[in-house]
Amino acid sequence: MTLNVYLIPGMSAGRESFEALTLSDHCSATVIPWLLPKRKEPLIDYAKRMLVSIDTQAPFVLIGVSFGGIVAQEALNFLTPKALILISTVKSDLEKPAWMRWAYKAQVHKLLPYYIAGHLAHKPLHMLPDLWQKRWKQYDYYLPMRHPEYLSWGVDQVLKWKGPSVNVEVPLFHIHGDSDDLFPLKNIKDAQVISGGPHIMILTHAKAVSKLLARICQGL
Question: How many C-beta neighbours within 10 Å does residue 21 have?
Fold first, then answer.
């Protein structure tokens, strides 16, 4: 029987961020795209809009990466997947680095010029060094959702999130890299560790992540 797998990417990322991963043959993968948030929209309301296309009549698994993992955990308020798989994310405020909690209290993220992100793709790449041109093209390819309203809202949601607001009996699996600079492994509890995996390990360590995903899905 086919197992539907719904993938929620990291902040600003799209389906391109999952292209290096491979899933088991019995899995059917669907990447959920980001939406523009409504003004002052609560995270759970946003999650309901974002995940409205999920077929709840068939068995399914939710996979969330980074900010997508936070959204996936909020989705447990209204969805019951066969399993929740978190990658490169956190399960509570305590798993975040201290600077994030400080940043939210100080509200420094409100001062960031998010509008700049929308203009980066329009820079004259031919005037940049070759390495910068390569990095800029990667940024443009892997992070297509750069609307300033989305970025401002998303960063605010990550910084203020305390943890899932519901306690349900859904099997949870956490995959994390030991070289994750955004969410350091030292703060993470009960995770399956990818050696050398950075925050973007679904790109850099796709084979190792795919192997763990296959093992998890085969056991469901």
Answer: 19
